[in-house]
Amino acid sequence: MKEVKNTQVINWLLSFVKPLSLKMSGAVLLGIISNLSVIGITFLGLKEMFAILSGDTTSVMKTFWLLILCGVIRGVARYMEQYLNHDIAFSLLANVRSSIFKVLRKLGPAKLSGKNSGDMITAITTDVEALEVFFAHTISPVFIAIGTSLVLVSYLLTNHLYLGLILLLGHLFVGVFVPVISYKQHEKTGSVYQETFVSLNQQVIENVDSIRDINQFSLEEEKLASLHEAGEKLNQEYQKKLEQSSKIQILSEFGVIGTTILMILVGTQLDLSVSQQVTTSIITLSSFGSVLALSGLGNALLSTFASGKRLFALVNEEPNVVFNSDKQQHKNEFNDLVIENLSFSYDEKQILDNLNINLEKGVTLGIGGESGKGKSTLLKLLMRYFDPNQGRILFDKTNLKDYSETELHSLESVMEQKTFIFADTIKNNISLKNEKISQEDIEKAAEAASLSEWIESLPDKYETKIGGQNRGVSDGEKQRIGLARVFLHDAPLLLLDEPTSSLDYLNEQKILHTIKHISEGKTTIVVSHRESTLNIADKVMIIE
Q1: Element holding 155 (H helix, E strand)
Q2: Which own/partner pairs from 48-55 qualify as long-range (CB within 8 Å, at least 24 positions apart)?
Q3: Separate counts of helices (H) and strands (E) for the chain
Q4: Which residue, 198, 200, 208, 202, is CA-closest to 227?
Q5: Which of 29, 225, 374, 423 gets the most CB atoms within 10 Å of its CB?
């Protein structure tokens, strides 16, 4: 895959910001006003103090009320700026999630079945959350810092050119140079720290999963020593990160103090009055609030850009297949299935070679063979997870590629090897929360899948919550729930991938009897390594 650059990620993220640019501009303006109000309090206070020392007390009350006004403006502007920034950030995160879900929907199971589910969870949770640093703590603060700096530099330029240039250089050092240095330094250690962290997590997970074997073979000391070593390595890498963060903070403080000292020295050479020098120095110190907020961005943006790159790569992934529009073009009927000279390979590994099948309506075809020979792959080709490298698949003399996704789903009822259970009620797991399906139909499907007796034994029956942190479900029960879903869908073509692999002999016979009954008048393809399951088929094909 082509390497993703930071500029690509930034442009992609900014594309989400454009619709909210007006609200973002308001947040930036409020931020500048908030910063200038704080500096205004200091400036007005100093100006009035020098006036009092010179014996002029005529403007004390006026200055007092101005200070109150600046304080109120500061509070209101700061609150509104923070409110707008976070409102923008969370709205944008929602838009990013929506965009990613659309992409995942487009990629479909063909792409996602090859990815680790943990990677997907990370992408739509941790990676998206990491973008908040960019949306809430980068875009607006950068423009606020630029706006605040321009106002203050312009003010000092009216006093003297050198004073304005010194403040400008100081702000560039703290707000640009320090974040860049921080990013580059953390980039060197960040990847090593992340790898070490993942390695320790992996060891902990493996040790927890194999705790019985560890006890049985007395491996406690060896595993503890390995964990201790990994923990020490992580501590060392974390120590490096802390040292780098300290250096960056010291560098930022050096920039602030150095700029102020230089301002005093230059002011002395320019023969500025004491009041001018003090005011200039205080303004200089006060002006760094907005740019100091940027000095820590280098470290923060490291993880943000890493997450952004993963998401950018995901949303720009090309789907394996592209369906026609969902407009209904074919009759929702199924009379025969023809596979002509079909060949398919994963990368360079040939899976199916010159396969031919002719299956009439109402016939059950059993497909057997050793694992890895292409049985499940054939079903995925029929579901159009992929397109064949050669040959074609015809439904009623129509190429599979000509069907829309909706049409294909209406023609096929599919049960794959693993049935996913949602954290919901048994009722909703069977019906997939389709409100058009009645309770009576759900119960019929459960009975057909030999689930009724188990469900009726539960206190809440069909309203019993399963999956997630709820009641546990055995592999056999999951498989029967998958079968119940297939029965409810009631499509003319049934595709069953190892429908009895997790069942004992008694339940297998019940399910096979049900499949035999349900498949009457329908075309059925059953993939299984069990001879007893293949016995229900009218025809059996062994893939070698």
Answers
A1: helix 139-159
A2: 50/275, 50/278, 50/279
A3: 22, 11
A4: 200
A5: 374
Give CA–CA dist 542/355, Å, rounded.
12
Sorted by sequence, the CB contacts under 8 Å of residue 1 that are 6+ apart come out as 313
Instruction: Name the region of 115 (left: φ>0; alpha: ψ -120 to 50; beta: rest).
Output: beta
Question: Half-sphere exposure of residue 123, counting CA atoms within 13 Å on the CB side?
Answer: 22
Q: Is the pLDDT of residue 26 over 90?
A: yes
The side-by-side arrangement of strands in the sheet containing 398-399 is 349-360, 336-346, 390-395, 398-399
pTM over 0.85: no
Q: Where are the beta strands (DSSP E) in 253-411?
A: 336-346, 349-360, 364-368, 390-395, 398-399
CA distance 145 to 152: 11
Instruction: Tell me the Ramachandran region of residue 292: left when phi exceeds 0, alpha when psi lies from -120 to 50, beta otherwise.
Output: alpha
H/E element, 414? strand 412-415
Q: If DSSP codes are grouped into helix, strand and coil, which group holds residue 496?
A: strand
Contacts 24+ apart (CB under 8 A), 56-63: none
Q: What is the pLDDT of residues 69-128, one digit of tens each?
A: 999 999 999 999 999 988 998 888 888 888 888 887 777 776 666 555 545 665 667 778
- Whether the CB-CB separation of 526 and 364 falls below 8 Å is answered with yes
Give me the amino acid identity at 466.
Answer: I
Under 8 Å between Cβ of 231 and 200: yes
What does the H/E/C string look like for 18-73?
HHHHHHHHHHHHHHHHHHHHHHHHHHHHHHHHHHHHCCCCCCHHHHHHHHHHHHHH
Mean pLDDT across 163-169: 91
Nearest C-alpha neighbor of 381 from the set 321, 317, 318: 321
Lowest mean pLDDT among 29-38, 124-133, 325-334, 370-379: 325-334
| AA letter at 95 | N
